[in-house]
């Protein structure tokens, strides 16, 4: 069974890359502000771990909103970084690449604490898996860390800090801004595992 990982280069997907060692990692530049930083991080992580890496570029910046798009948040946004239908879009694009490589399972880095966003909840991921499973190709969606918080995932994965250090969590820039929700989550997780973020 061949497995792929949707690898943003952020802390959570980096931990999954080390822990799960997928056959293939897929990084998507969809026109968001931090795309170059994410691609740089994901590339370094895959090189360090010997994972085959595919980068897909499709500029959807005109469809985005909030921090990730560099615009004002949409009125429906539960948080400033909300991009409409983002996880659904990322999984769909990654699934298209998976079919080319004979992948059976696509893994995504959703955590227990991601339920703040509807598309991070188990019910949503189950529905998305059902949608994929009923189509040609027999692809399944899995969220192996769905029971964990970011801190718990770091500990369970046993990822070394020299690999985790490549991760890029910022929502607004190629380099950590230090202020967005992504950077704050990164720093808070590092502090929780007793690693100074600076």
Automatic annotation (TrEMBL):
PANTHER family, sorted: 7-CYANO-7-DEAZAGUANINE SYNTHASE (PTHR42914:SF1)
Record EC number: 6.3.4.20
GO biological process: tRNA queuosine(34) biosynthetic process
Native organism: Rhizobium laguerreae
This protein's record includes keyword Ribonucleoprotein: no
Protein name (database record): 7-cyano-7-deazaguanine synthase
Catalyses which reaction(s): 7-carboxy-7-carbaguanine + NH4(+) + 2 ATP = 7-cyano-7-carbaguanine + 2 AMP + 2 diphosphate + 2 H(+)
Pathway: Purine metabolism; 7-cyano-7-deazaguanine biosynthesis
Keywords recorded for this protein, A-Z: ATP-binding, Ligase, Metal-binding, Nucleotide-binding, Queuosine biosynthesis, Zinc
Enzyme class, UniProt record, top EC level: ligase
Protein family (similarity comment): Belongs to the QueC family.
Keyword Ligase among record annotations: yes
GO terms assigned for molecular function: ATP binding; ligase activity; metal ion binding
InterPro entries hit by this protein: QueC, Rossmann-like_a/b/a_fold
Gene3D superfamilies recorded: HUPs (3.40.50.620)
């Amino acid at each position: 069974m061949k497995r792929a990982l949707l690898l943003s280069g952020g802390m959570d997907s980096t931990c999954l890359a080390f822990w799960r060692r997928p056959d293939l990692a897929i990084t998507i530049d969809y026109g968001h502000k931090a795309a170059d930083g994410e691609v740089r991080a994901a590339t370094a992580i895959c090189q360090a771990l010997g994972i085959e890496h595919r980068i897909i570029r499709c500029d959807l910046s005109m469809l985005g909103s909030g921090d990730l798009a560099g615009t004002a948040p949409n009125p429906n946004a539960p948080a400033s970084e909300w991009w409409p239908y983002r996880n659904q879009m990322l999984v769909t694009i990654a699934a298209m690449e998976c079919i080319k490589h004979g992948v059976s399972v696509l893994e995504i880095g959703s955590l227990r604490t991601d339920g703040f966003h509807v598309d991070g909840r188990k019910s949503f991921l189950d529905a998305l898996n059902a949608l994929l499973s009923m189509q040609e190709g027999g692809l399944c969606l899995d969220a192996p860390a769905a029971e964990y918080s970011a801190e718990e995932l770091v500990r369970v994965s046993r990822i070394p800090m020299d690999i985790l250090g490549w991760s890029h969590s910022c929502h607004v820039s190629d380099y950590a801004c230090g202020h967005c929700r992504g950077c704050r989550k990164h720093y808070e997780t590092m502090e929780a595992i007793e690693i100074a973020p600076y």
